[in-house]
Amino acid sequence: MNETKTIFSESQINVNLSTTTEFSMFRAPVLRTAEACFKALGPLAHMTDGSYCRGVWDTVMCWPAAKAGSVIRLPCPPLPGLIKENKAYKICGPSGLWETREKGVFTNDIGYTHYTECYSKEALETYMKYLGNKTLAEKEFIKDIITTSRTLEIVGLCISLITTIISLFIFWYFSTLKCHRTRIHKNLFVAMIVQISMRIILYVDQLVARETGGKIAGAASGDSNTIYDTPIFCEILYSLLEYTKTVKFMWMFVEGIYLHNMIAVSVFSGKPNYVIFYTIGWGFPVLLTVAWVIPMARINTIRCWFGYYMNPLIWIIEGPRAAVMAVNLFFLLNIIRVLVMKLRESETNEADKLRKAVKAAIVLLPLLGLTNFVIMLEPDGHDWVKFSVYSFSTSFLNASEGFFISLLYCFLNGEVQNALRRLVIRHTAYYATDISAAAWRVNTTKVFPVFFQVSNACAVMHARQ
């Protein structure tokens, strides 16, 4: 093994391994077990003279022995959210025992490793908010909540993907359904299909990265050769994910404009200007995404932009999305106002009026993207119950958005149901006719020979007479 170099600073010693030893020793295969750690350390696990802290494996990194009263520093592991160019460190006390989390308290166990300097700003904020000052049981509980909610989200996204694809096909296949409203629906469904597909790909890729490349402290080790462990390509896919997400919001905005103009502003009830709609829906998100990607690429050097949602730069694209939802909320309130005014002119009672108004509001919520207001709220990282409710509710709303929009605006739509009903009746009648014709052919093949035999017999009898 390479020699260690000691640098004395007051009462502490800073031990630095050579670059070759650092990277060969602390790659993922060595970090997974204590046995592999001590095998790699070899003679560096112990010292031959003086008081020292023995070599340890802290379940993440492998630490060589250190002299008493010293600080040993090693490169941070290449894990998501960590800056591998920075250093983690452990403190070896004057009695040859590792210092614990509590300053001045030492133990013969693995002690406490200071990873604070390894975290990026966003990752550190996330860690302190949800896992900081938590017991081991509390940390495991939070991790279980996150894992379960992510699993439910993937299942919900798959269901949403299937239903949106079917809905898009229905609107494309039936010529009777083609109109301005369904044309806008189709663009929204395309945006949702692409966005859901990319989210599923990235989620599954993260799972594969953990399974094939191994896990260190629950995170992918970086050795899986998956998208998650591929620099630049991973960042490109997350950029496309945010683009398609913005496209989805913009087409929800277009839905709000069209619906509001049709119901509340009848003067604009003519043919929509699709040049403007396509510019808003597909073009404007390109500008927003580029405006976000350029500073992100310069500032965020963390692999796969881990924790980028904690970075203030996210408001370059999140701000316009919030503005879209605010405008759509105005559209919804104005539509409800117009609807209530029209209901008052009718002869229906107040209960029916209220019921129809509430029904219209509930139906329009997912189409206008207003359920995303809940997702944008900050979860409480200190209360288990609140965090659990937030995790499961946001995962449900995020995953089922495509399903509910498909359900309300396709499968439960009267025009769609009539088109499907006519298709079923037409095919049923065709097969019924086809079956009747086939049965007639079978019966005639049985009846005609008998008929010919009877006719021949009658002819013979007539000839004999």
From TrEMBL:
Keyword Metal-binding: no
A cellular component annotation (GO) from this entry: plasma membrane
Principal subcellular localisation of the protein: membrane
InterPro entries: GPCR_2, GPCR_2-like_7TM, GPCR_2_extracell_dom_sf, GPCR_2_extracellular_dom, GPCR_2_secretin-like, GPCR_2_secretin-like_CS
Subcellular location: Cell membrane
Transmembrane feature ranges: 154-175, 187-204, 249-268, 275-294, 314-336, 357-377, 389-412
Family affiliation: Belongs to the G-protein coupled receptor 2 family.
Keyword annotations from UniProtKB, A to Z: Cell membrane, G-protein coupled receptor, Glycoprotein, Membrane, Receptor, Transducer, Transmembrane, Transmembrane helix
Gene Ontology biological process terms, A to Z: adenylate cyclase-modulating G protein-coupled receptor signaling pathway; cell surface receptor signaling pathway
Signal sequence, renumbered to the chain: none
One Pfam entry name: 7tm_2
Keyword Ribosomal protein: no
Domain G-protein coupled receptors family 2 profile residues, every copy: 36-122, 149-413
UniProt-recorded Gene Ontology molecular function terms: G protein-coupled peptide receptor activity
Protein name as annotated: PDF receptor-like isoform X3
Entry membrane topology: Multi-pass membrane protein
